[in-house]
Amino acid sequence: MTVDTITHFLNEHPGWIGLALFTIVFIESLVLVGYLIPAATILLAAGALAATGHADLSAALIGATAGAVLGSTANYWVGTRFRPQLPQLWPFSKHPEMLERNRQFVALHGGKSILLSRFTKPLRPAVPAVAGMLDMNRSRFMTYNVLGSVLWAPGYLYGGFMMANSASFATTNPLQLSMLLLLLTGLIWGSYLLVKRIVASRRELSDIDLELELKSHRRQQESGKD
């Protein structure tokens, strides 16, 4: 499945854009086949196509978002239902280190791993299944799953939509699509790291303030004893 093939199909059958994107995103979210489908790049192309008025942007948004939510949910179920068999499934059977890296990622970031993986192609098809395998709380999983999906799908569709307004942009140009894909992913990861750093800095300042307050309190107690 190539971007050119899908773009050509959507050009010829714009009324199918919602169902087509739902199917593509759903399948791309599954651990067994997700690595083979360039869903994010297809969303950029679909957004650019919608900008021309040739396809319905609302249908694309609904289809892609629903596909992301339900696809990751199905992937989570696979991890829960086939927990003992997951290490024997491709690609983990051939690359067991991938399973361990994803396991560590989920253990480190918890529910946030679901949100972050939605914006990272190497993690997207695997992390929900690993979260299910590790018995992540279902409510927590769904919270981050829905949040990631409603940010990811519209983000890439609107990215393509906005880029299409540039006269130099072409929906079938793989270099332009790849550059936009990298830019969006970089912005999202950069924003996350910035927020994480700000929160950590505030926590450090709070710890320092608490330590100073405790020292001051101890000095007052010692002065009172004297």
From TrEMBL:
The chain crosses the membrane at residues 16-37, 57-78, 141-163, 175-195. It is a multi-pass membrane protein. It is found in: Cell membrane. The keyword Membrane applies. Keywords: Cell membrane, Membrane, Transmembrane, Transmembrane helix. The keyword tRNA processing does not apply. Residues 37-160 form the VTT domain. It comes from Alkalilimnicola ehrlichii. It holds the Pfam family VTT_dom. This is VTT domain-containing protein. InterPro entries: DedA-like (IPR032818), VTT_dom (IPR032816). Belongs to the DedA family. GO terms for cellular component: plasma membrane.
